[in-house]
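Suppose you are handed only two things: the residues of a chain and a line of SMILES describing 2-acetamido-2-deoxy-beta-D-glucopyranose. What would the bound structure be? This form records exactly that question and the answer produced for it, so the two can be stored side by side and reused later without any lookup.

QUESTION INPUTS
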Amino acid sequence: MKRLLSLLGILQLLAATAAVYKQWIPNTNFETASNWDKGRVPCARDVVHFEKDKVVSVFVGSPHALTDMYLPLNGEFLLAAGAAFTAFDGSWDPGCDSGGTVRFADAEQRSWFDPTLWRDVLPSGELRPGGPIFSVHEERVPCRHDDVIFQPETSFRVNTDSAQPVIQLRSISIMGQELNTPSSWAGYLGGPSAPLQFHGNGTLQVTGTGCPDKSGCACGNALDGPRICAALLRAPGRQCPEPACQSPLQPLGHCCGVCGATIDLEFTPDFDLQKYQDKLVQELLSQPRYAGVQLAMSKVHRAQTFLGLVSRGTAPLIQIVLIDDRAGAQAGTSAEQLAADIMQDIAQHGEALGISSGKMEVATGSTATGQVGSPPVSRIAAGTVMGLLFSLLFLGGILFLYRKGKLRSLQMLTLQKWHPKISRFSTSTLCTVQARQRPDGVDSRWGQTPLPWGYHHLSSPHSPSHHSWWDSSQKQIPPE
Ligand SMILES: *[C@@H]1O[C@H](CO)[C@@H](O)[C@H](O)[C@H]1NC(C)=O
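ANSWER OUTPUT
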């Protein structure tokens, strides 16, 4: 039974490695406590404050009663069915005794190239089982043939600053819709949300093509390697771990030195990266003596030198990185053992595997770096998911408040390049929403005043100083 279970586990792992889906972790949702400076979602007595100059896209999943809300100059609320903002009428506020100003946190610096902001998921969106496979840091950020997922029912804002003008991807899913053709992506970029979600000088480009080469495809993030490592190591607690070996290895695409082993493979047209990785997992890594060893394998480009001096461009090779969980003098020794097994296998079966040569480097707690060479001895199928035209299905529609001036069920609110004040005055019979450009450039606010039917007064008792910039051309919705 145990055997069967572990076999099932391996099969599951193999199935999971076919296509690579990377999911953006942070969001800018209204209901995410960490998006607010007080670490909690604003409640009825709070004054909600969005920075005037910070562009935001904010998903709102449920109804909120609020006292006041300052809006940014440019942004949008995406309201789920049933979500709404209502004015707090002062009567009922369980668990919200002390009102205060609650500010929306700054999402501006969240970088596309921060490897800590992505995770590998299955096409369904579930977290991919960890297993013994890991990725070097550069490949934790979406590679050019990867599928990117922004979770449904979330809003986000990503800084795409890049060393390259164009960041290529196979597909991007937003709000549950996969955009996997250049034209569907172009359509999305032309819509209202994209400029609020993506900023920076790198342009995302959807190609719709997975890696066409069975020997693998280089990730394509090498030029942004320094940006990736800077993002990884920016936070104080995020230094590279102190290596337990004297001269740690520096795998290509990895930000930190590692103890263990690396193997560089030269390959022939017969080489199949996915098959070879599966073989290593099945035949070697799954052995009990290699519990605690992790493997990363990918195609990389190494700069070539001639006589150690002149660069001759780059050559593709397969890099295998092996690390383990041993400590002290034992650090890296399991990985070293596995690397030796792999080298022996290459010496015997290399030709049939499409491997022409292998070069191993080792760094363990007990030895200095050593090198071993072996004598000389396409296509990864990316999962294809049916694309659907992007539509904000459950969001229902777009209502530009400044044009309509009214609505009963707010679905999506887009604030253009003007500075609005929005008020929703709710009584049992009256519902009015206002948006007006502020002439003075002072922060706008979304205030509350329950109004009797037909009444045209619009100043808020909480903000008498703001009274002056309201004009009287109000629109109201008659009671139903
Ligand atoms: C984009 O801006 C960054 C600075 O944030 C700069 O380092 C990089 O070279 C720029 N990239 C391009 C393609 O202009």
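WHAT STANDS OUT: The pocket of 2-acetamido-2-deoxy-beta-D-glucopyranose is lined by residues 161-163, 165, 201 (CB under 6 Å). The two ends are 65 Å apart (CA to CA).
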